[in-house]
């Protein structure tokens, strides 16, 4: 059953858009009132196989049985080797035009230009069927179907990465995924091989702290930042280049789960994030992000303020280079079919359009190989670009031919260049001439690389600057709010507690000692180990933009309020008032009934951002719900006899964030701060 979520009706795709047309064609490929075979033969019976008499053996000649079972046997395709678990949606990117000075890419440069996109969010380590809320990095991949060809921004929700060179990716992933002997643990970094690798491989330290921070457990895809991670090179119409870092800024702010909440949710609703995405879009509560760029001069040494821009373990603090907004993304349409669209979408960091180029970041360079290659085994051959979700909206005429699952019926006889047999207007491209050489001299706009000089000895080595593994790890930790710092210490302690190998714990502590003394001491105390003495970087200037708890408030659309009452509790006024803010109200009662969306048996705190308790009950399940909401620093409203329920649950009605008789406005104000941060100091560890 679809939930009753308020908001404007979900936006239908413009029927004239290229994606709508190609999808409409794809949808129309199967129609008609009768069940048929895949050859179109109508079938009166699909429940009984063809047998020699009712008790006889099944006959091999039953073509319907064989076709049905054979197709079923092959329904699954290999899951992605990383980022297997994900969810996606279509949307529209609208350019502000502010990027025109740095890039010729039309979808960024032309003010007001709208470009269709498909965005896929993912966890990295878990299998396709794993839970959404595990502690992990989140993928944030966006395919822009631009008029100049497809551009893919294949990023994460963290701005740095574990390794500096793509050649180590198989090592990283082999260490981080399950142990190969038993295939456990699923979707977790809390195990020996992960910490073994990252403690031996200290360039991972910065990223490990991000993964252990609240960024590793986002509340929603709606409340995640996204990053292109690498430095890209943008080139404007005059041929002037800049180095650039891409950022997605969520309109709803950055908000995370509490750790205990994340773990409980993995059991109570493993589909938490994908459900939130799909339900919100159905309800017209669209996910919105601004795309921004940090623009840095394209100098010979490719560094900025001493930061090597080719090192993907380093970020550029926003205080040194502000993120300039260049456009807005609104995710507003759910896919119709998970397999056809979300599973078969194929991203590639090398899908670039004129005006956007790559740099020599060695992580990026290796990725340029991996993405196309992986699709060949995942999607079964080289023609995956013809699948509706992967098709470019720009005209395609590529001279690539044949191959498995070829669905284009190519015309003409000369799919090669140069040729003298294909006319300029013919089905085979006339040639890759420059704009001037084209018949009619129409504007060119093809992809031409900036003629960057390339020189150097053949060598397997990194620049010297890549050996600084700790200064930015220390910068990140020092920039977090004290509450977030506490969460990092708790997360690392939790993960290391799960290890079997004591020497690995000790080695991690030695690494941490180079980042921050207090952090090392906290983790060591939690593990009951001595804290080693290291040499944390002497001076770190914090970057406030890296903290997510900073006193700001945010829009609350998509948040959920649970009202504990009885089947007779009238929530219609609250529902009406909160609907204007996009907030959903769900009535929780002892048993089902008209308007009751959850019973005491089916409700659990993790589903609600705020709980309002309106009636008296001593049901222990309600007490647990309230205690969890309290521990997770959620606002709790109390009215009528609800105060007795609160007291029975052992909660102090005068504690911060306990709201007496709250109206819609108070609830919205409390939700806008994400959590009741004032309550956190009262909560004895471990709380989250
Ligand atoms: Fe990757 C998938 C992001 C490094 C190899 N990667 C994949 C996805 C995301 C990222 C979001 C999922 C795309 C989707 O939704 O289909 N990957 C990153 C980021 C990286 C990164 C931000 C570092 C900055 N990746 C990376 C390296 C390699 C790969 C260094 C290999 C050398 N990534 C892959 C892959 C995947 C993939 C094997 C698996 C499925 C796919 O590509 O289509 O090619």
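Sequence proposed for the structure above (688 residues):
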């Amino acid at each position: 059953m679809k939930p009753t979520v308020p908001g404007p009706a979900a936006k239908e795709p413009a029927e004239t858009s290229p994606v709508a047309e190609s999808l409409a064609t794809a949808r129309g490929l199967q129609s008609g009132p009768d069940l048929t075979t895949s050859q179109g033969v109508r079938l009166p019976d699909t429940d009984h196989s063809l047998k020699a008499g009712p008790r006889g053996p099944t006959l091999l000649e039953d073509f319907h049985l064989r076709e049905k079972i054979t197709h079923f046997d092959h329904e699954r395709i290999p899951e992605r080797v990383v980022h297997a678990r994900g969810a996606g949606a279509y949307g529209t990117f609208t350019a502000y035009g502010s990027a025109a000075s740095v890039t010729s890419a039309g979808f960024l440069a032309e003010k007001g230009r709208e470009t269709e996109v498909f965005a896929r969010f993912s966890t990295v380590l878990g299998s396709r069927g794993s839970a959404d809320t595990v502690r992990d990095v989140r993928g944030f991949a966006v395919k822009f179907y631009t008029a100049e060809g497809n551009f893919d921004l294949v990023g994460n929700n963290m701005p740095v990465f574990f390794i500096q060179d793509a050649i180590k990716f198989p090592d990283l992933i082999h260490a981080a995924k399950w142990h190969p002997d038993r295939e456990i643990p699923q979707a977790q970094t809390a195990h020996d091989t992960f910490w073994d690798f990252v403690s031996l491989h200290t360039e991972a330290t910065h990223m490990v702290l991000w993964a252990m921070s609240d960024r590793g457990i986002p509340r929603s895809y709606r409340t995640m930042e996204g990053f292109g991670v690498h430095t890209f090179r943008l080139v404007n119409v005059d041929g002037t280049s800049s180095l650039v870092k891409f950022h997605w800024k969520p309109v709803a702010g950055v908000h995370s789960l509490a750790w205990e909440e994340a773990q409980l949710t993995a059991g109570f609703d493993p589909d938490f994030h994908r459900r939130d995405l799909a339900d919100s879009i159905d309800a017209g509560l669209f996910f919105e992000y601004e795309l921004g760029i940090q623009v840095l001069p394209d100098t010979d040494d490719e560094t900025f303020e001493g930061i090597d821009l080719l090192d993907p373990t380093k970020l550029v603090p926003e205080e040194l280079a502000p993120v300039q907004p260049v456009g807005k993304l609104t995710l507003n349409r759910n896919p119709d079919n998970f397999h056809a669209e979300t599973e078969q979408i194929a991203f590639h960091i090398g899908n670039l359009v004129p005006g956007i180029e790559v740099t020599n970041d060695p992580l990026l360079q290796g990725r340029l190989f991996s993405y196309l290659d992986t699709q060949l085994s995942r999607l079964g051959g080289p023609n995956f670009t013809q699948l509706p979700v992967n098709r470019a909206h720009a005209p395609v005429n590529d001279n690539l031919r044949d191959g498995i699952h070829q669905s284009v019926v190519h015309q003409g006889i000369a799919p090669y260049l140069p040729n003298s047999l294909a006319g300029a207007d013919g089905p085979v491209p006339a040639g890759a001439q420059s704009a001037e050489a084209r018949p009619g001299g129409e504007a060119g706009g093809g992809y031409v690389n900036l003629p960057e000089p390339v020189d150097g000895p053949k060598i397997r080595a990194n620049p010297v600057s890549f050996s600084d593994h700790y200064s930015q790890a220390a910068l990140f930790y020092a920039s977090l709010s004290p509450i977030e710092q506490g969460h990092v210490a708790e997360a690392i302690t939790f993960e290391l507690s799960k290890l079997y190998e004591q020497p690995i714990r000790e080695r991690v502590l030695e690494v941490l000692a180079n980042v921050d003394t207090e952090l090392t001491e906290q983790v060591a105390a939690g593990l009951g180990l001595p804290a080693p003495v290291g040499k944390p970087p002497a001076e770190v200037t914090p970057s406030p933009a890296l903290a997510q708890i900073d006193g700001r408030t945010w829009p609350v659309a998509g948040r959920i309020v649970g009202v504990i009452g009885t089947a007779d509790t009238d929530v219609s006024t609250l529902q009406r008032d909160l609907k204007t803010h996009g907030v959903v109200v769900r009535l929780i009662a002892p048993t089902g009934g008209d308007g009751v969306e959850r019973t005491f048996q089916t409700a659990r705190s993790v589903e609600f951002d705020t709980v309002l308790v309106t009636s008296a009950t001593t049901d222990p399940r309600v007490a647990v719900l309230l205690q969890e909401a309290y521990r997770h620093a959620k606002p709790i409203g109390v009215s009528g006899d609800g105060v007795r329920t609160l007291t029975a649950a052992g909660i102090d009605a005068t504690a911060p964030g306990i709201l007496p008789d709250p109206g819609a406005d108070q609830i919205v104000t409390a939700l806008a701060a994400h959590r009741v941060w004032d309550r956190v100091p009262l909560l004895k560890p471990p709380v989250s």
